User: Fold SET domain-containing protein from Coleophoma cylindrospora.
Amino acid sequence: MPSRKSENTIFLTQEETERIQNTIQDRLKKCSELVGHAREPRIPKDAISQATGAALMADMGSVSGPTQEGTLPSFAVGQPYPPCTVSLQDLQPISLADLKMDTHHRGRRLAVKRASPVVTLASRSWTMVQNDDGDEVERLEVCLHKSRFGEDVLESASAFVIKEPYFTLTDQGEATLRIDHPSDLILCRDDIPSSNTAPTNGVNGHAENTAAENIARTCKDKGNAALKKHDIPLTHAHYTQGLKVASEERVSDTNPDLVRDISRNRALVNLLLNQLDEAEADAKASLTGRDDQRSKELDGKAYSRAGSAAYNLGKYQAAQGFFEEQLKLMPGDKEATIYLRKIALRLREQETGVYDLKKIKSGLSRARPRVDAASFISNTEVKDSPDRGRGLFATRDIPIGGTIMYEKAFCVVWGHESEALTAVTYDVRDEKIRISPVGLSAAIVQKLLNNPSQIERVMDLYGDYQGTGKDVVRTEDGPIVDTFRIHDIMSRNAFGPGSQYGEEAANKASTGLWIWAAYINHSCIANAKKEYIGDLMVVRATRPIAAGEEIFHSYDESGDYDARQKALMTTWGFECKCALCAAEKLDDPAVRKKRQELARDADAFVAREPWADAKRLTIMKAQRLARALDDTYEGRPQYQGVPHVMAEKIHEWLAKASPRK
Ligand SMILES: C[S@@+](CC[C@H](N)C(=O)[O-])C[C@H]1O[C@@H](n2cnc3c(N)ncnc32)[C@H](O)[C@@H]1O
Assistant:
């Protein structure tokens, strides 16, 4: 495994690089040889005992966590394939015995039961699954992703239906069913009724209506009981099943309040699960609009739940409306009053860009690393940027040091959080090895599956693989997110907010996605700089910016032209052609090397020598360094009008230095 050689660099030896490349290329070769071949049956007893042993080993290894300090898991980013977009009921069953090697079984569904303990590794988990008779077993692997409720997917159910199963090989060449898109795996917990069973379908008459109502009531009661036991996913499943039955005409016609009651309850559970879209919709669906005291209390509760959901989705105006309605029904309610005060602050931030930064900073800690703040983006707009796709442009003049924008992160995974995971990825498409914060991809996918209203704006971001584009796809079984597209979007748009809460290991670096800032293109002679307060990104002008001008920040600040171009190409996929790069490209490599060495000396000098009360000799040394650096630029016409970037620091030092009296 690659190792961490210092706190924030990751070192891969040539040997390690080759090992990763060879392992993955061997797998690809084997896969191409086996495509369409019949599956080799496993001996159930042996396969289950092998998985049990592996689970035990993984558990013992996980005493210190699934990722050992200083080591990184590695895995391949395979050839992207789209998730299944067909509802379960429209797929035809297939059996384990009929699986073909290295094949996506389009149009099919496979029902299996867990047959062994789950082997939980850092970037995947796997288990043996079997058919109903137990005479066929196969390996099932879930890459990277947790269930919608944040648990290990394979641990959270005992039976599964796999949509359009992909049967392939692991990196080690073992046959496996592989899940890359969480929406391709339907979990069937024994204690959760399947959402596809409508227990009263097709029956009618008074007795049947009462029976249906009773089923809905029982689901509600079971949900309430599960809530008392804090089993939130189970609570959600019972309420969902109850709602399905209670919404049937025969029940909703005679007892419309049952749908409202269950919706109101599910709204609360959805808030606990961070499923904010559904929380808001449920709360609204539960409103009675009646005037009696009891109904007013219930509607007040519903408005409060809708308000919390809207607030956490950043829909402050909608949230304001909900809490104002709540206050009409529950005058003086403390929580609603506090929320309305916070909303007034958020709306002010959003409209004016005025933030109480001192208060925001004082509320941050390792335990509470995220700010409660709105985004301020109205100084900017997204437009086409020639040769760079889209870019962010100023809509008004911004002075040097002025704030261009504030943005609250869409999603950040902090290094000290359990979701943080950096892996060495080998992309079979360009054969490049990268260090990728794959934990962030998983967190983004999770957030989108929980809040499908956010899918479109994330899918609008730039990523090499287009997948199904930005159209939001959903089936009867829930929303669908193409994880390969999210991986590519994350690779080209994520940034690190730095280790604000103590040192972090290189294999657990903090990373996040800021959707609006993701439209900012790179330039080595940027006009903006970003900084972070928790997960709030602040972008400030480093030069005066005129209305209509494009905003640029620097994705890579390396002074070394070759290192910078290499990093920009590997991580961001482009060759920088800014004025500085165009000039440096024309330099003799020996001049670039000399400038590089001098800049290193100058930077060390600036870091070492205080400019205040500097001795005359020290100032002379700085002048010599500045002159030598200037000499590497002067007389070269390509630098006309281009800042002498590497000489800037020493010149700044000289401008401030005052000789000792
Ligand atoms: C964070 S996104 C910036 C927004 C992007 N241009 C878009 O259309 O959505 C990063 C991607 O923009 C492009 N890009 C950014 N700066 C560039 C530059 N100076 N020259 C060429 N392409 C650039 C690259 O494709 C890069 O991977």
User: Anything to note?
Assistant: The longest strand covers residues 108-114. The radius of gyration is 29 Å.
